[in-house]
Fold this sequence. Notes:
The protein is α/β, with parallel strands linked by helices and 123 residues long. It has helices at 21-32, 65-74, 83-89, 107-116; strands at 5-10, 36-41, 78-82, 102-105, 119-122.
Amino acid sequence: MENKKLLYVQTSGISxxxxxxxxxxxxxxxxxxxxxxxLYFLGEGITVVTKGNAEKIxxxxxxxxxxxxxxxxxxxxxxxxxxxxxxxxxxxxxxxDFIEGTxxxxxxxxxxxxLESGGTMxx
Length: 123
């Protein structure tokens, strides 16, 4: 399979735990398939990668969301946080409020990623 890029956009926050695991599991699967996955956190989705939140979420027999995120980061999968969402939804959040492995990016980055990706999924 030729090298392609998939973009996973997380707009749901910690108030919707059933929507939080899929982008990480799909990104890990893409990586195993030699596809370049990128996760972009937008709107309330930034709460997923705000320090201290993922530890509180566990669904069924799955590991905690933090464990899944840690595995995703250890695989070298990029996690991008929308700077404008930090201003709108996070009020006084700074880059140090997010888990290690996240990169703060502007809104134009999302537009570019959508145009560059072979596919985009929203959660």
